[in-house]
Design brief:
Radius of gyration: 45 Å
Shape: rod-shaped
Strand content: 5-15%
Helix content: 55-70%
Number of strands: 5
Structural class: alpha+beta
Largest sheet: 5 strands, mixed
Length: 437
């Protein structure tokens, strides 16, 4: 017995498919129509009493067929409409019951609402054509004004429900389209929000890297140099370095610690201003926001690089070939400055001894601004490890800055004029004339 119960629970008896199962509203209409028709037949209330009294109970056949067709008013179109037309013709021929006609009008309405698009579009024109044809035929046969009432009756049971169905279906379609449009708008708004958040995160990452990484790299390089300095102890041959060597070591250590302190203070100040700007969402802070660096600050940038390049064999040269007094849009100047800053920082971390050359040029006006930074590709005495660790995000940030302005950036080894290999960073930044600084 338990096995039988479990089997029946796991495999329930299938019922009617959902497409064949009548809807609850259709069942209610069929039952109401059948009950109403039986009452009218019992009382002898026919639409055409002379003909209806002759047929009597035969009128229940079209009524029954019409009620059965009503069960498929939602899922059985257009077959329910076709069956109801045949039932209505038989009902009218036998004197007609009002309940049969009322159920027929509901089936016409349901054909427009729930039928396919093709059926829905065809019902109203066919109803108009049928009403006009019936009215004209009755006028031609009887030639009396009273026949116009029969035309109006035909319009009431065909055109009126069909037209009502068209109006309601159009409203439903419009409401569905508006809901879909609202969902699409909400989806697009969410996508825009995600893209805006992603873009803002990328911008913040670039700014944090550009503001702080240069100072932290100088700190790392000089702290490494300070740790590597001799302390005046005897060398391998047992000979001490002497007081001069000890004094030189102390001076070099003092210089390195001074550079470390300077870069630490500058990095902390810039970080503090940037964090304050991010936290102040209202923009009412009394603190002056950090000004964007421009190409006029390249000399100071290279001076700091020279101070950080002691004992590395690196030299820095600036070649600004722009026209004197030429102005550029603020976004272009900021991007060009950041490209030079990151390139110089990378040179301090990776380049061997030699000259780092910074070229800033604008060959033609109007035309793009070209920034080119070359640094030697020496092996630094066989030590291939960088002077300071890096994450590789600097090149990504430079490329993003150039692409945001519609420009390009290339970085990689190239051949120098004398045959040596150099590392070149080349950025071309479009300049739109008339942009505010």
């Amino acid at each position: 017995m338990p096995s039988t119960t479990a089997s029946s629970t796991a495999h329930p008896r299938p019922g009617l498919p959902s497409r064949l199962r009548p809807h609850r509203v259709g069942v209610l209409i069929a039952v109401a129509g059948m009950v109403g028709g039986l009452v009218l037949w019992q009382l002898g209330l026919y639409n055409n009493p002379r003909v209806g009294s002759r047929y009597g109970a035969w009128l229940l056949i079209p009524l029954t067929v019409m009620c059965l067709a009503s069960l498929g008013r939602r899922r059985g179109q257009p077959w329910a409409l076709a069956v109801s037309i045949v039932a209505l013709a038989g009902d009218i021929a036998m004197g007609s019951l009002l309940a049969t006609v009322v159920v027929f009008t509901d089936i016409v309405y349901a054909a427009v609402i729930y039928g396919s698009t093709r059926v829905s579009r065809a019902v109203l024109p066919v109803s108009v054509a049928f009403t006009v044809a019936v009215t004209c035929a009755l006028l031609a046969v009887f030639r009396t004004p009273e026949t116009l009432l029969l035309g109006a009756f035909s319009a009431g049971i065909t055109i009126a429900p069909a037209w009502t169905g068209v109006i309601i279906r159009d409203h439903r379609n419009a409401a569905a389209a508006e809901r879909l449009r609202a969902e699409q708008t909400a989806l697009l708004a969410e996508m825009d929000r995600v893209q805006a958040v992603t873009a803002e995160r990328a911008r913040m990452a670039r700014e944090l890297h550009d503001v702080v990484a240069n100072h932290l790299s100088a700190i790392a390089i000089h702290s490494t140099a300070a740790l590597s300095l001799g302390d005046g102890r005897p060398d391998k041959d047992g000979k001490g370095g002497g007081e001069d060597a000890e004094e030189q070591s102390r001076a070099a250590t003092h210089t390195a610690l001074g550079v470390i302190r300077e870069n630490s203070v500058q990095g902390l100040a810039e970080m503090r201003r940037l964090i304050g700007l991010l936290r102040d969402a209202s923009g009412d802070s009394d603190e002056t926001p950090p000004t964007s660096p421009t190409l006029a600050g390249l000399d100071a940038l290279l001076d700091r690089a020279r101070a950080g390049a002691e004992n590395t064999g690196l030299r820095f040269t600036l070649r600004d070939q722009r026209e004197p007094g030429a102005s550029l849009p603020a976004p272009v100047e900021l991007a060009a400055y950041r490209v030079v800053q990151e390139s110089v920082t990378n040179a301090l971390k990776h380049s061997g001894g030699g000259t780092v050359t910074v070229n800033v040029d604008r060959v033609r006006i109007p035309g793009p601004l070209t920034v080119r930074v070359t640094s030697p590709l020496g092996d630094r005495g066989g030590d291939r490890a960088p002077r300071a660790p890096g994450s590789g995000s600097g090149l990504i940030g430079m490329r993003e800055r150039a692409e945001l302005l519609g420009g390009t950036l290339r970085a990689g080894p190239v051949d120098a004029p004398l045959g040596a290999k150099v590392w070149e960073v080349r950025a071309e930044l479009p300049v739109e004339e008339g942009n505010p600084r």
